[in-house]
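your task:
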Amino acid sequence: MIEYVIMIIAILGAVLALVQRDLLKAAILTGVPGAAIAALYQLLLAPDVALTQAIVGSAIIPVFFALAAYRTMRMEEE
């Protein structure tokens, strides 16, 4: 039962990241599905895969996306 809740959290996190208009918020929200999938791997008794997913999916990729979004910010025309 808890596996389904974690899968729903991962899907909702991905959808939230997709519908964001602010690129920085979207980049930060990409870590939610990564953390949820890491928790799912831990529940499925794959701690090595869970640790790798937690590091890459919920830490490194969102930071790189946030840095890229921050470096490419454009001023909005009024």
Summary: The helical segments are 2-19, 23-29, 31-43, 47-71. Residues 2-71 form one domain. The chain has one domain: 2-71.
